[in-house]
Amino acid sequence: MKKLSGRVVSVVAVLATVALVLVLVRPAIFERGERTIDSTSIGGEFNDIAQLATEEYVYSSVGKFDDEGLRLLNVRVPFTGKNFLVSYEGKVTAGIKDAGQITVDVDDAAQTFTVRLPRAEVLDSTWTEGSSEVWDQTMNPINQIKVEDVTEFVDSRREAEKQKAVDDGLLDRAQASAEELVRSHAKALIRGTSMEDYEVKVESAT
Question: InterPro entries annotated for this entry (predicted)?
């Protein structure tokens, strides 16, 4: 029985060696199988939106994913870690999330036309399609890079870039742009009407 097992192992090893030699010497013998990408829709619906985007933050960055892997007695075990380096571009958009919350108050006695705006919010944070490029990644058969690793990296970087945009004043700029945009539209709206001489005021929620 042991001899038979040994022969089987030997045969498998020989076949694997022959296959490797053929790949190196006569690569034309082997052909890649067909690659198929498919999807199935499991649901979809239309939703009304009334967003008013007034400012965007465009960025170009490099991010790194690093998983140390296993540690033994506080010492990193070789060949158990994984990492990759990615450059990417994207943008963070801000403005009025629901334009339906914008209200208008006309005071004929005071001759004022007042528009009230909600506070600006981050509307979206996206990567530019096709902009990402992998510069360095480990090829570790023990702890391979998985789809979940890439997804986690993308989500974390997208959130980090959004926070950086907010810290750099994105929302304040979006609010100011919204006020100026609404003011110019309000003046155009009442031009040529009985309210043409009314004072246009724009107020933002606190």
Answer: DUF4230 (IPR025324)
